[in-house]
Amino acid sequence: MSGTLLLQQAINGLTLGAVYTLIALSFSLVMGILGILNLAIAELFMIGGYVGFTLIIAGAPLPVALLAGMLAAAALSLVIEKIGYEPLRNAPLITPMLSTLGFSIILQNLATNLWGSDPLQLPGDMLATRIALGEVSIGAMQLLVIGAAIVMVAALAFVIRYTTLGRALRAVAENRDVARLLGVRADRILLIAFLLSGLLAGAAGVLISLHYAAITPYIGVETGLKAIAVMVVGGVTRTWGALLAGPLIGLAEVATVAYGGSQIRDFVVYGLMILILLVRPQGLLGGARSDQGPRV
Amino acid sequence: MISTYHAALLADSGILMLGALSVYIILATGQLSLGNAGFMGIGAYLASYLTVEAGLPLTLALVLSALAAGMVGIVIGFPALRLRGIYLAMATLGFGEMVRSFFLNFEPMGGAGGFSGMVHVSVGYIWLWAGGILVLVTLLERSRLWLEIRATHDDETAASLVGLNTTATKIGAFGFGAAVAAVAGGLFAHHHVYIEPANFGFDRSIELVLAVILGGSTVAPGALVGAVLLVLLPETLRFLADWRLAAFGTLLVLVLLVRRQGILDRGLFRALTFRRQAS
Amino acid sequence: MSTMPAPLLSLVDVTRTFGGVQALSGVSLDVAAGRITGVIGPNGAGKTTLFNVITGAYTPTAGEIYLDGARLTGLKPYQIARAGIARTFQNIRLFSSMSVWEHLLVAQRHDGSVFGRLLPAGLARSKAGREAEKALVFFGLEKVRDRPARELPYGTQRKVEMARALTANPRLLLLDEPIAGMSHEEADELRHLLMRLRADGLTILLIEHDMTFVMNLCDRIHVLDFGRQIAHGTPEAVRTDPAVLDAYLGADT
């Protein structure tokens, strides 16, 4: 494989990785604070993508479409928290996880009925702009995806680290009872975690559909599972870990496709995830131990 | 005589129930596996190879596949000891995806194109296995061994401090669960007479867990209730046409909200079987 | 005073540190066979850590533990339990899905074949069934036999936990604050039960904050403070030991 092509592939890997990072953070906001896998995130991401896509096709400017996708996913995320999670907060972890699965089935059915099961395509001219960098060229859309992802991760990291809200989020993640004693209203914080998680998933959905220039109702599941792997590799509670792990897995995928055949890539990605869980459960960058999860 | 349509539903429930039991057995020790479709896939491919390529009778092929998958389960069980709760669940999810990805690349058994050539098996034969294993597990639930399993589930530390080897219990459960999943997989292959890696993905693993939780995760027959429900529900919702799945999802959430322990629990099971309190 | 029986449990210079903090430092003590030995000390003195080290929940950082001459150090908790040490917990740990009766079956040693373990548990005429029945009667739990243990009143739960420990047929019973949360009557009843167990030859090591209870029951007492043993001896000797008075006055008890 030529060096140019390799570099081109690397850029693709980075773009994919940027989207993985966003979804991984979406998972980890709920997971880090509540200890549950919100399986509906995969479909929030898909719905966000469709909403953004529809607006773009209708001629809305990109930022509007992105914002609309984010808001739609966030609104759904709040509904899921209220109906699917809150009444089950004291049940074994498996129960709220399956109720989020119920929502994911509903959302996927909804998308199939609203938009059909065939892929929607973006008009070709929208993505034609490419910026040449020596021998490789980077699509304007790719640049946008990577840039938007970085901005959002930075914003999230800022919120978590430096704001009162962030401190409250961390306190609830650490110990819900102690947080309550400190005067943090845990139920409101959980809603906010779902809200932020939805915003990120929605953004990722719009961005990845721009990257592929197409979207189907089934885009959520595969990408969602990968994002879980990214979350684990980066460390469940590490914001910056996901920023490192996303591109890493994106690149690893592109590299295995280039050198080992396209089908082996999932084997490598999940193998890496299991390895991290076993030898470095706190994720690549360290931090809180993640092998002492609550009981199922 | 039952129609082909009903026979197919009956066969599907039997296979799903076995898969659900495989999750149930592991869950009984407090471990959630989201990768049992992987064990099912191993059983399906191995049993198919043994009947189609090696010419073995199906029963023998199923037994051998169960033993092999059981050993894989034990091997998986060891590293799983290091992980708890949702982290274990994610690791098993990864295992399941790795198995699927392995068969996708395993050209000798067809790779992505799938594998066929199995001889179709009757619904009666499927239920001989399904019923037999269900009865076996139900009886086992009254044994001393199952008390040890429940102790491990309830409080692992306390269990080890009263002298129970919880490590052996947890690994054993993985082995047993994997073996049962392999039987389910072998039967699946010989019922559908065609298998492909996508049959044994994350969706399948989740379906097995769903059957257990809906049916009731504290008694083995809960797997039966859950499996029948999951197979029949989409059929009875057929009149909703395009909105069938959404209705199914809504029902799922509703059941979890109003009866989180699943439809069948220990109390209801006792009442149904007219059994006095455990003795 | 008569000659001391041979020690059943011996701790030799046992130290346990957690990230630089010494929870136990150089504790040596002998628990005499057939006696009731008490461990007292202010909060944070290392009493529960001592139990956790003996039962294998923590391995000692240094030092050795022997049960009747056999080395226990480094064994897994279940192996130590099988060697003959049973315990109860300060914050009761019962099995949440089990009835009282099931608690009395699950801890019994099962030396039979693998197939024996597959048979229904606790049939009335089996050995396990008879043992469980005996423990049920001893602790007066007949009326709550089939109730889920975790739904019972606090004092009764303590009894179930103790009964569970005893059905393992231990040589040494460790009790971590056995009368915490019990009414005065319940505590008194328990004291008599423990004295009956001693009369039957069981060795007991207990942690307790209630001084009257400890002084009235124990044959020997060991006093811990900041992870060190500061005194040991008969209740009378310990009561008047200046180091003990110091530790307790300092810790406002």
Automatic annotation (TrEMBL), chain A:
The chain crosses the membrane at residues 12-41, 47-80, 131-160, 189-215, 227-255, 267-285. It is a multi-pass membrane protein. One of its GO terms (biological process) is L-alanine transport. Keywords: Amino-acid transport, Cell inner membrane, Cell membrane, Membrane, Transmembrane, Transmembrane helix, Transport. InterPro entries: ABC_transp_permease (IPR001851), BCAA_transport_permease (IPR052157). The keyword Cell membrane applies. The keyword Transmembrane helix applies. It is found in: Cell membrane. It comes from the Bacteria. Pfam families: BPD_transp_2. PANTHER family: BRANCHED-CHAIN AMINO ACID TRANSPORT SYSTEM PERMEASE PROTEIN LIVH (PTHR11795), HIGH-AFFINITY BRANCHED-CHAIN AMINO ACID TRANSPORT SYSTEM PERMEASE PROTEIN LIVH (PTHR11795:SF371). This is Amino acid/amide ABC transporter membrane protein 1 (HAAT family). It comes from Aquabacter spiritensis.
From TrEMBL, chain B:
Its main location: membrane. Pfam families: BPD_transp_2. Keywords: Cell membrane, Membrane, Transmembrane, Transmembrane helix. It is a multi-pass membrane protein. It comes from the Bacteria. One of its GO terms (cellular component) is plasma membrane. One of its GO terms (molecular function) is branched-chain amino acid transmembrane transporter activity. It is found in: Cell membrane. InterPro entries: ABC_transp_permease, LivM-like. The chain crosses the membrane at residues 6-27, 58-78, 85-103, 123-140, 208-233, 239-258. The keyword Transcription does not apply. CDD domains: TM_PBP1_LivM_like. This is Amino acid/amide ABC transporter membrane protein 2 (HAAT family). It comes from Aquabacter spiritensis.
From TrEMBL, chain C:
One of its GO terms (cellular component) is plasma membrane. PROSITE patterns: ABC_TRANSPORTER_2. It holds the Pfam family ABC_tran. It comes from the Bacteria. One of its GO terms (molecular function) is ATP binding. SUPFAM superfamilies: P-loop containing nucleoside triphosphate hydrolases. The keyword Chaperone does not apply. Residues 9-251 form the ABC transporter domain. Transmembrane segments: none annotated. InterPro entries: AAA+_ATPase, ABC_AA/LPS_Transport, ABC_transporter-like_ATP-bd, BCA_ABC_TP_C, P-loop_NTPase. This is Amino acid/amide ABC transporter ATP-binding protein 1 (HAAT family). It comes from Aquabacter spiritensis.
